[in-house]
Amino acid sequence: MFNYNRYLAYFYINYIVLIKMSLTTDIKNKISVLDLVSEHADLKRQGRLYKALCPFHNENTPSFIVDPEKNIWRCFGACSVGGDIFSFLMKKENISFVDSLKYFSKKLGISDLSFNSSRSKTLEEIKKINNLSVDFFKNCLFSDKGSMARDYLKGRGITKESALKFNLGYNPKGKELYNYLISNEIESKNIIDFGLASENSKGDIIDFFSERLIFPIIELQDNVLGFGGRILSDKNPKYINTKKNLLFDKGSVLYGLDQASENIRDEDECVLVEGYTDVITAHQFGFKNVIASMGTAITIYQANKISDISNSVVIALDSDQAGTEATLNSLDKSWGVFKSNNKELPAGITNKTIKKNFMLRIVTLPENSDPDDYIRNSSEKWKESILNASPIVEYLIESLSKKFDSSTVEGKELIEEIIRPFISKEKNSYIQDQYVSILSKELNVSEERIKAGFDSKTKRFNDNSNRLSQFKENSFNILKPIPDDKNRLKILSEYLTGIVLSNKNVNKDLLNDWDIEMIDDTICKQILFKWLQADNSVENENIIEENLYNEINNFKSDKLIFFDNDKLNKVISQCKNDIEREYLIAKNVTLMLDYQKNIDEINKIENRIKILDKSNIRKIY
Questions:
Q1: Among 1, 41, 425, 599, which is disulfide-ready with 52 (CB 3.0 to 4.6 Å)?
Q2: Helix (H) or strand (E) holding 291
């Protein structure tokens, strides 16, 4: 006898399994083990692999390995376990597979059958607030209140048509947006929680984007994800973004994609720049396939979005050296995402498919120039630059050969080691051979010598040599992976700020003669500077801007309070040492771009790092 209920149950269970399998595959395609593990371990490159001290047990010799190509990890030490992103998170956080699935789904904004109704309600509330705010900002820009913002746009050459197209706006001084949202029956708590206003210790409320030109960040479905704001006075920071929430994450969005997606698909090419005005100016001059990463580093989430709609990306780098290096460092991870998404195209009567090779090319703009200026000065030159952009490997070979001395053994080894993963990820053997040929000519070595690093079966570079071992590898690694949202220097900066704000008896002499410029966070730097100026507790001083009060509360924590002054002083001193060390390592990376010229300063910095490493202060946090 046919059991209808049993059949439904069987169908439902199998349907759930299929959904979960599809969801798991989708997540694993979008989040790499390298990115996940780098948030928990100090990974160092060794050939095509990354190595670190195991985050799951204490050890002195690194036994933890990450293979980014296979997207797996393994501990060869006491743990003797391994797996993928799910198993790593399950072990690290002691959670179930289902919980790990929910965590990654939330991080990527992927829906599944267990989608939380309260989360859905929160998302709808954020969207409602953002949509109301867009209307308010736009009305203010074209009212008497927005005259200063309109003058700024006029000075930058941005037309009214472009301002309307990109939904630009203005947030007047004070709390006018807050009052407008309240009048539209939005709860005060939600306005503050979702980053449109902030409250200081006195209970005063001010708009988060007060006195700023507003750049709405909109996704393809016309949902307003968040906002960028540019200050129109001399205050700092110059640019701020909506704080991270369920809807907005700066590392996973692309500015201008709502306007550019159709043109990107039509042209099968995306031009990636850094800033809001770069995008607006490009579109105004007819280059409508331009979008921005809203920062120098390109995350894997942004790379996934781009590769979904285009098989060709041109990155326009300005002349800022630090920005260029950050972009190239991030490409070491995102390049794998780009290369894995090669599209299959129909091949007509052969009934086969042709794999269209993904192309990533680089344009370097003239000194003291950004895309906005360059396009305005000569749109034809911009067009020509994009057309003649260099493939990533050719760009690296050319630029690294200028920065390092390719006539020395050390220089040759370093250049080859940096370029190796990019050639290795090239799946087209003809293009791979072409890159090997260019590299051999540039380094003046035989192609056979370079090909000797390949595995004959996989055409991937072998992991049987450590070419940087003689080149001060223990001091720094030029392509050391950096987490998308925080690096170690930023974490230490936030930790030090939290300690200072959480303890009332901190001796200011510990920081008076210390260079606060080493702090790798604008907010932390501002707060510590104001704290040093204050006579008493920093939040009781009128010298603190209102929008910093909320940040101060975010840093303070009961867990950071010390009752032993000696231990408090030791922790601060150790934290200062670690910040200085990380700062010097980062500085050395930049100096290494011209090793011969900066050799004396490089050696001086490395000696200082050795002194910091030998400090009698012990790791106590």
A1: 41
A2: strand 290-292
State pLDDT tens for residues 97-131: 767 777 887 777 665 444 445 667 888 899 999 99
Strand, helix or coil at 2?
A: coil
Place of tokens 């500077």: 529
Q: Which two tokens stand for residue 6?
A: 């049993």
Contact yes or no for 467/416 (Cβ under 8 A): yes
User: Both ends of the chain: CA-CA distance in Å?
Assistant: 68
Encoded tokens for 150? 């309109």
Instruction: Please identify which residue in the block is written with the tokens 């472009």.
Output: 162
Q: Any alpha helices (H) in 94-146, and if so which ranges?
A: 97-108, 117-141
**Under a CB-based contact definition with an 8 Å cutoff, are residues 298 and 254 in contact?**
no
Q: Does the pTM of the predicted model rise above 0.85?
A: no
Share of the chain above pLDDT 90, in %: 24
Rounded Cα–Cα distance for residues 424 and 613 (Å): 35
Bridge partners (DSSP) of residue 65 are 51, 74
From 479, 514, 487, 488, select the one nearest 578 (Cα to Cα).
488
Task: Enter the tokens of residue 297.
Answer: 């580093």
**Pair of tokens at residue 37:** 């593990």
Q: Give the integer Cα–Cα distance in Å for 169 and 465.
A: 55
DSSP state of 560: G
The two structure tokens encoding residue 602:
């490089």
Report strand pairing: 312-317 vs 359-364.
parallel
Question: How many other CB atoms sit within 10 Å of the CB of residue 359?
Answer: 17
Contact 495, 575 (CB under 8 A): yes
Q: What number of residues does the chain have? A: 621
- State the DSSP string of 89-108: HHHHHT--HHHHHHHHHHHH
Between CA 86 and CA 72 the distance in angstroms is 10
Residue 594, classified by CB atoms within 10 Å of its CB into exposed (0-12), middle (13-18) or buried (19+), is middle
Q: pLDDT of 374-386, one tens digit each?
A: 999 999 999 999 9
| Helix 392-403 and helix 429-443, axial crossing angle in degrees, nearest 10 | 10
